[in-house]
Design goal:
By secondary structure, the protein is mostly beta strands. The chain has no helices and 16 strands. It has one domain: Methylamine Dehydrogenase, Chain H (7 Propeller). It has strands at about 1-5, 15, 30-35, 40-45, 55-60, 65-70, 70-75, 80-85, 95, 105-110, 115-120, 125-130, 135-140, 145-150, 155-165, 170-175. The strands form four sheets. It has a four-stranded antiparallel beta sheet with strand order 1-2-3-4, with no helix packed on it.
């Protein structure tokens, strides 16, 4: 299940959706549910084309991004209306928002690249090479850096540090991985 929260005081919204591990629930996963965070009541049900694998709210542009296999849907944060859909990698994805400049990052498990989405124009503007499968994304607004955790087929794990302005890899930090227990 994917959840995103909008914290600006004028809207008080929580967004919920998800395909629950790839299982279809009779079309019920083709919606984003909008809940009022103050009352817990449903405000809207936004129809999308297919199961959502991730949600991310962009406070810079007041848009919600919903990742699907093969594309991303953009929902207006105030009106809860779908304002666009654009093509992306063909797999389930995770999302992360750059809260400094409004970019959105999309990562799929086996894509070996990270898509950089322009938050104003809602299109993929760049790709950042990742040396393996991506498993996690997090953003540091103080340093304007994105961190992407990955693992290669050969068992190498690491953490890429990506500059949030230039969309280039600043560092590739190896993360040791050991099997079993340590004494």
């Amino acid at each position: 299940m994917a959840v995103a929260h909008r914290s600006q005081s004028e809207f008080h919204k929580i967004y919920v959706s998800g395909d629950y591990g790839g299982y279809s629930r009779g079309g019920l996963d083709a919606y984003v549910i909008v809940i009022d965070s103050r009352t817990g009541e449903k405000q809207a049900r936004v129809a999308v084309q297919s199961g959502v694998t991730a949600l991310a709210y962009n406070p810079v542009t007041s848009k919600l991004y919903a990742a699907h296999k093969g594309y991303t849907t953009v929902i207006h944060g105030e009106t809860d209306a779908v304002i666009g859909t654009f093509a992306c990698d063909p797999e389930e994805a995770i999302l992360c928002v750059n809260t400094v400049n409004g970019k959105v990052y999309r990562s799929s498990e086996t894509a070996e690249s990270l898509s950089v989405i322009d938050g104003d124009g809602d299109s993929v503007t760049a790709k950042v090479y990742v040396p393996g499968s991506e498993y996690s994304l997090t953003f540091d607004s103080v340093g304007n850096k994105l961190y992407c955790g990955y693992s290669t087929f050969y068992g190498q794990c690491g953490l890429l540090m990506v500059d949030g302005d230039a969309d280039t890899v600043v560092a590739d930090i190896p993360v040791p991985f050991t099997y079993g227990t340590q004494s």
